[in-house]
Fold this sequence. Notes:
Order of helices and strands: EHEHEHEHHEHHEHHE
CATH topology: Rossmann fold
Helix content: 40-55%
Number of domains: 1
Shape: globular
Number of helices: 9
Strand order of the largest sheet: 3-2-1-4-5-6-7
Largest sheet: 7 strands, parallel
CATH architecture: 3-Layer(aba) Sandwich
Strand content: 15-25%
Oligomer: single chain
Amino acid sequence: MGLDNRTAGTALIIGGCKGIGQAIAARLARDGFNIIASSRQAGRDAEETERLVRQSGREFTLLLLEVGDREASKKALQPYLEGDALPEVIVYNAGIARDNLFAFMDPEQWQAVIRTNLDGFFNTVQPFVFGLLARKRGRIIVISSASGQAGQAGQVNYSASKAALIGAVKALAREIGRKGILVNVVAPGVISTAMTENLPTERILPLIPLNRLGTVQEVAGVVSFLAGPDSTYIHGQVIAVNGGLII
Protein backbone atom coordinates (compact mmCIF):
# COMPACT_ATOMS: atom_id res chain seq x y z
CA MET A 1 0.00 0.00 0.00
CA GLY A 2 1.41 3.40 -0.93
CA LEU A 3 1.72 6.37 1.32
CA ASP A 4 -0.82 9.17 1.12
CA ASN A 5 1.34 12.30 1.32
CA ARG A 6 -1.52 14.33 2.78
CA THR A 7 -1.36 12.18 5.92
CA ALA A 8 2.18 11.00 5.52
CA GLY A 9 3.32 10.41 9.10
CA THR A 10 6.89 11.07 10.20
CA ALA A 11 10.16 11.17 8.29
CA LEU A 12 13.48 10.78 10.09
CA ILE A 13 16.43 12.36 8.32
CA ILE A 14 19.82 11.39 9.66
CA GLY A 15 21.99 14.36 8.79
CA GLY A 16 18.99 16.56 8.13
CA CYS A 17 20.01 20.07 9.10
CA LYS A 18 22.23 21.40 6.33
CA GLY A 19 22.74 21.16 2.60
CA ILE A 20 20.98 18.21 0.99
CA GLY A 21 19.56 17.05 4.31
CA GLN A 22 17.94 20.40 5.03
CA ALA A 23 16.41 20.49 1.55
CA ILE A 24 15.03 16.98 2.07
CA ALA A 25 13.52 18.01 5.40
CA ALA A 26 11.86 21.04 3.83
CA ARG A 27 10.52 19.05 0.86
CA LEU A 28 9.15 16.17 2.91
CA ALA A 29 7.48 18.67 5.25
CA ARG A 30 5.73 20.17 2.22
CA ASP A 31 4.69 16.63 1.30
CA GLY A 32 2.94 16.31 4.65
CA PHE A 33 5.54 14.57 6.83
CA ASN A 34 6.38 15.63 10.33
CA ILE A 35 10.17 15.81 10.52
CA ILE A 36 12.75 14.42 12.92
CA ALA A 37 16.17 15.67 11.81
CA SER A 38 19.45 14.67 13.36
CA SER A 39 22.50 16.86 13.71
CA ARG A 40 25.73 16.73 15.65
CA GLN A 41 24.93 20.07 17.22
CA ALA A 42 22.26 22.70 17.60
CA GLY A 43 22.72 26.05 15.93
CA ARG A 44 21.73 28.16 12.95
CA ASP A 45 21.45 25.25 10.52
CA ALA A 46 19.06 23.39 12.82
CA GLU A 47 17.10 26.57 13.48
CA GLU A 48 16.71 27.22 9.76
CA THR A 49 15.61 23.64 9.16
CA GLU A 50 12.99 23.98 11.88
CA ARG A 51 11.77 27.24 10.34
CA LEU A 52 11.38 25.61 6.92
CA VAL A 53 9.51 22.64 8.35
CA ARG A 54 7.14 24.67 10.50
CA GLN A 55 6.54 27.00 7.56
CA SER A 56 4.79 24.02 5.97
CA GLY A 57 2.68 23.50 9.09
CA ARG A 58 4.46 20.33 10.14
CA GLU A 59 6.06 19.32 13.44
CA PHE A 60 9.84 19.41 13.87
CA THR A 61 12.06 17.54 16.30
CA LEU A 62 15.82 18.05 16.50
CA LEU A 63 17.77 14.95 17.44
CA LEU A 64 21.36 15.51 18.57
CA LEU A 65 23.57 12.51 17.92
CA GLU A 66 26.96 11.45 16.61
CA VAL A 67 26.30 8.75 14.02
CA GLY A 68 29.70 7.14 14.54
CA ASP A 69 28.84 6.31 18.16
CA ARG A 70 26.70 3.16 18.16
CA GLU A 71 25.49 3.25 21.76
CA ALA A 72 24.83 6.98 21.89
CA SER A 73 22.94 6.81 18.59
CA LYS A 74 20.76 3.94 19.75
CA LYS A 75 19.99 5.73 22.99
CA ALA A 76 18.96 8.90 21.13
CA LEU A 77 16.82 6.91 18.71
CA GLN A 78 15.21 4.65 21.31
CA PRO A 79 11.96 6.66 21.68
CA TYR A 80 11.26 6.23 17.95
CA LEU A 81 11.99 2.54 17.42
CA GLU A 82 8.51 1.09 17.71
CA GLY A 83 4.79 1.74 17.83
CA ASP A 84 3.24 4.97 16.68
CA ALA A 85 6.58 6.79 17.06
CA LEU A 86 8.22 4.64 14.38
CA PRO A 87 8.91 6.81 11.29
CA GLU A 88 7.29 6.00 7.96
CA VAL A 89 10.43 7.13 6.13
CA ILE A 90 14.06 6.93 7.21
CA VAL A 91 16.61 8.88 5.16
CA TYR A 92 20.30 8.29 5.80
CA ASN A 93 22.15 11.40 4.65
CA ALA A 94 25.02 11.74 7.13
CA GLY A 95 28.35 12.05 5.39
CA ILE A 96 31.75 13.73 5.49
CA ALA A 97 34.70 13.95 3.12
CA ARG A 98 38.40 13.90 4.01
CA ASP A 99 39.95 13.97 0.58
CA ASN A 100 43.55 13.04 -0.13
CA LEU A 101 45.48 10.92 -2.58
CA PHE A 102 45.51 7.35 -1.31
CA ALA A 103 49.32 7.27 -1.14
CA PHE A 104 49.24 10.14 1.35
CA MET A 105 46.03 9.30 3.19
CA ASP A 106 46.48 8.89 6.93
CA PRO A 107 44.51 6.39 9.03
CA GLU A 108 42.31 9.07 10.60
CA GLN A 109 41.22 10.39 7.19
CA TRP A 110 40.21 6.84 6.25
CA GLN A 111 38.58 5.94 9.55
CA ALA A 112 36.68 9.20 10.01
CA VAL A 113 34.95 8.85 6.64
CA ILE A 114 34.16 5.16 7.08
CA ARG A 115 32.94 5.76 10.64
CA THR A 116 30.50 8.48 9.60
CA ASN A 117 29.43 7.47 6.11
CA LEU A 118 29.21 3.70 6.53
CA ASP A 119 29.27 2.77 10.22
CA GLY A 120 26.77 5.57 10.81
CA PHE A 121 24.31 3.83 8.49
CA PHE A 122 24.51 0.67 10.57
CA ASN A 123 24.38 2.58 13.85
CA THR A 124 21.29 4.62 13.02
CA VAL A 125 19.25 2.59 10.52
CA GLN A 126 19.72 -1.00 11.73
CA PRO A 127 17.97 -0.35 15.09
CA PHE A 128 14.73 0.42 13.19
CA VAL A 129 14.58 -2.78 11.16
CA PHE A 130 12.73 -4.96 13.68
CA GLY A 131 10.06 -2.29 14.10
CA LEU A 132 9.64 -1.87 10.36
CA LEU A 133 9.39 -5.65 9.90
CA ALA A 134 6.73 -5.85 12.59
CA ARG A 135 4.73 -3.04 10.99
CA LYS A 136 5.24 -4.43 7.46
CA ARG A 137 5.70 -1.13 5.72
CA GLY A 138 8.14 1.77 5.47
CA ARG A 139 10.77 3.40 3.32
CA ILE A 140 14.53 3.50 3.78
CA ILE A 141 16.31 5.95 1.48
CA VAL A 142 20.09 6.19 1.54
CA ILE A 143 22.03 9.10 0.06
CA SER A 144 25.14 7.74 -1.64
CA SER A 145 27.12 9.55 -4.35
CA ALA A 146 28.30 9.41 -7.93
CA SER A 147 31.71 8.77 -6.36
CA GLY A 148 30.32 5.48 -5.08
CA GLN A 149 29.24 4.50 -8.57
CA ALA A 150 32.36 5.38 -10.54
CA GLY A 151 35.11 6.27 -8.09
CA GLN A 152 36.95 9.53 -7.91
CA ALA A 153 40.69 10.21 -7.64
CA GLY A 154 41.53 11.70 -4.26
CA GLN A 155 38.44 10.14 -2.71
CA VAL A 156 39.32 6.50 -2.15
CA ASN A 157 37.90 6.66 1.38
CA TYR A 158 34.76 8.55 0.35
CA SER A 159 34.18 6.41 -2.75
CA ALA A 160 34.65 3.23 -0.72
CA SER A 161 32.09 4.33 1.87
CA LYS A 162 29.52 5.43 -0.70
CA ALA A 163 29.96 2.31 -2.84
CA ALA A 164 29.53 0.20 0.30
CA LEU A 165 26.22 1.95 1.01
CA ILE A 166 24.97 0.93 -2.43
CA GLY A 167 25.94 -2.69 -1.77
CA ALA A 168 24.34 -2.58 1.66
CA VAL A 169 21.06 -1.25 0.28
CA LYS A 170 20.90 -3.88 -2.45
CA ALA A 171 21.45 -6.66 0.09
CA LEU A 172 19.00 -5.16 2.58
CA ALA A 173 16.39 -4.81 -0.17
CA ARG A 174 16.56 -8.57 -0.74
CA GLU A 175 16.19 -9.22 2.98
CA ILE A 176 13.19 -7.09 3.82
CA GLY A 177 11.32 -6.30 0.60
CA ARG A 178 8.81 -9.11 1.04
CA LYS A 179 7.68 -7.42 4.26
CA GLY A 180 6.60 -4.32 2.36
CA ILE A 181 9.61 -2.16 3.19
CA LEU A 182 11.09 -0.30 0.23
CA VAL A 183 14.84 0.38 0.27
CA ASN A 184 16.55 2.56 -2.33
CA VAL A 185 19.58 4.75 -2.98
CA VAL A 186 19.83 8.28 -4.31
CA ALA A 187 23.27 9.02 -5.77
CA PRO A 188 23.86 12.75 -6.26
CA GLY A 189 26.60 14.04 -8.52
CA VAL A 190 28.20 17.42 -7.99
CA ILE A 191 25.62 19.37 -6.00
CA SER A 192 26.00 23.01 -5.00
CA THR A 193 26.56 22.82 -1.22
CA ALA A 194 29.13 23.97 1.30
CA MET A 195 30.95 20.66 0.73
CA THR A 196 31.52 21.46 -2.94
CA GLU A 197 31.97 25.23 -2.89
CA ASN A 198 35.77 25.01 -3.20
CA LEU A 199 35.83 22.52 -6.07
CA PRO A 200 37.40 23.69 -9.38
CA THR A 201 34.14 24.06 -11.29
CA GLU A 202 35.95 25.20 -14.43
CA ARG A 203 37.40 21.69 -14.67
CA ILE A 204 34.27 19.85 -13.52
CA LEU A 205 31.55 21.47 -15.65
CA PRO A 206 32.92 20.18 -18.98
CA LEU A 207 32.47 16.64 -17.61
CA ILE A 208 28.76 17.21 -16.94
CA PRO A 209 26.55 17.08 -20.05
CA LEU A 210 24.06 19.53 -18.52
CA ASN A 211 27.03 21.87 -17.89
CA ARG A 212 25.95 22.94 -14.40
CA LEU A 213 26.01 21.83 -10.81
CA GLY A 214 22.90 20.26 -9.34
CA THR A 215 20.82 21.84 -6.61
CA VAL A 216 19.83 20.42 -3.27
CA GLN A 217 16.20 20.83 -4.26
CA GLU A 218 16.72 18.49 -7.22
CA VAL A 219 18.03 15.79 -4.91
CA ALA A 220 15.20 16.40 -2.45
CA GLY A 221 12.69 16.00 -5.26
CA VAL A 222 13.89 12.46 -5.95
CA VAL A 223 13.73 11.62 -2.25
CA SER A 224 10.19 12.99 -2.20
CA PHE A 225 9.27 10.66 -5.07
CA LEU A 226 10.79 7.63 -3.32
CA ALA A 227 8.97 8.54 -0.10
CA GLY A 228 5.64 9.02 -1.82
CA PRO A 229 2.79 7.00 -3.31
CA ASP A 230 4.11 6.78 -6.89
CA SER A 231 7.21 4.68 -6.17
CA THR A 232 5.68 1.53 -4.70
CA TYR A 233 7.35 -0.81 -7.22
CA ILE A 234 10.83 0.73 -7.01
CA HIS A 235 13.04 -1.31 -4.74
CA GLY A 236 16.77 -1.93 -4.38
CA GLN A 237 17.57 0.70 -7.00
CA VAL A 238 20.14 3.45 -7.36
CA ILE A 239 18.67 6.66 -8.76
CA ALA A 240 21.36 9.02 -10.00
CA VAL A 241 20.94 12.79 -9.81
CA ASN A 242 24.07 13.89 -11.61
CA GLY A 243 23.28 15.86 -14.78
CA GLY A 244 24.71 13.06 -16.90
CA LEU A 245 28.09 12.93 -15.14
CA ILE A 246 27.75 9.15 -15.10
CA ILE A 247 25.73 7.59 -17.92
